[in-house]
């Protein structure tokens, strides 16, 4: 679905709001809470991407693209119960304007986002903002290196941030890397046949690569595409949409607990109302649900938002059209495509939701509506789906001794923290945040914390990544037995020597592997692959 069609749809939605206002509105569903109605001079109208981030203090942080003291939008904070404040107002040329992105929580406790316009060249910027509202511009786009970013950058396992711009470069958008201190690298300029207008946030998958979704472009005729790229910027097109299987995706991908990728498109499908899809690692795409574009559609249509996999394993999302009131719905869908409508949006308490839901560690789902509310300028809401409390490690992978922050609720009085059953030392900072580190001997799996309210588990598995510290001997002919020393070798599935030659090996312990130099190996580094990732030796093994 093109932006022109989206804008037309929003005009029609606003007209519908006025048309039905005289007839009254049904009461809000008990599980749905209108936390805050946006209105001027405050920030208004949260749009896609609009990603909400949970801070260490338990509050949610986000952006709205309009309103504020200068009319250029701003950054807001809202508590889980609805206490709202604007912590920064954008001013245009100096610090940017029209922040559509939402925010990413960094491992440093600060938030990272982008503005769509403004900055020194009016092509937007990348910024860092503290929870107290101190904003630093990290990079101003100049179009040659990217322009008009919709989404926030995401933090990779290397500590750097990666993102995409809607425009710039050679014209179809770019991907970039930026350090927390602001060192910027343009990684790739898209060709239309690869990707155009990448508006959704990227994700880093368990294989270490980044995955993104493009609203237009692709090989099939411009209906959008799904891409993969390495940290060095090498791009692979995984799938080009063909309308039948969806078109013009706006929401981000999510990697499910089964390793597959899930997402939505805002249009296309057999009923032209968009789709929910699954993409396997073998690049096979399956449509799980087709939305119906007809005016009388009651199951929702036109999902601009992506999906969130909640702590119950199901996926939750919103559409910004359809439903019994015509203002969108909140829905649940399983990995097998079992679909149900949970809530129909109404004008009085928020309508036309575009932003992907965020599950707070208190179990509730949170989101933003682009319209509706008391002033018809949008609303922030929560939805209680009966999901349990959980904890959320930041980051979600790391080597032994890596520092990890844990977000949660009711953490005061925590008595133990463990990584897949291996106890870790920890420090409770507040009721919503504690710090720990990956303990020696830990393996990939769920993180748990025993609190006064019960045992809380992470909503996704933490990947303990391996490390090669040394090997001996440093050289030898084919057939040499090599002892590899490191950490987190349990479950190793592959050992390779120079040239990628696969070796016969045995795991002696979590800290030691014995491997035989394979035929065809050449001088090069040794690699060990485990369920947590891949480790590369710091030096090369020499084949005599």
Short description:
The chain contains 1 helix and 50 strands. It is mainly β and 544 residues long.
CATH architecture term of the domain at 49-189: 6 Propeller
Helix content: under 10%
Please state the CA-atom Rg, rounded to the nearest Å: 24 Å
Biggest beta sheet attributes: 5 strands, antiparallel
Ranges where pLDDT stays below 50 over 5 or more residues in a row are 1-28
Multimerization state: single chain
Distance between the termini: 60 Å
Count of helices?
1
The overall average pLDDT, rounded, is: 94
The number of E-state strands comes to 50
Describe this structure in words.
With 544 residues, the chain is mainly β. Among the domains are: 49-189, TolB, C-terminal domain (Neuraminidase, 6 Propeller); 392-463, Immunoglobulins (Immunoglobulin-like, Sandwich), CATH 2.60.40.10; 466-543, Immunoglobulins (Immunoglobulin-like, Sandwich), CATH 2.60.40.10. 3% of the residues lie in helices and 42% in strands. It is built from 1 helix and 50 strands. The strands form 13 sheets. Strands 1, 28, 29, 30 and 31 form a 5-stranded antiparallel beta sheet that branches. Strands 43-50-49-45-46 form a 5-stranded mixed beta sheet, with no helix packed on it. It is globular, with a radius of gyration of 24 Å. The termini are far apart. The relative contact order is 0.10.
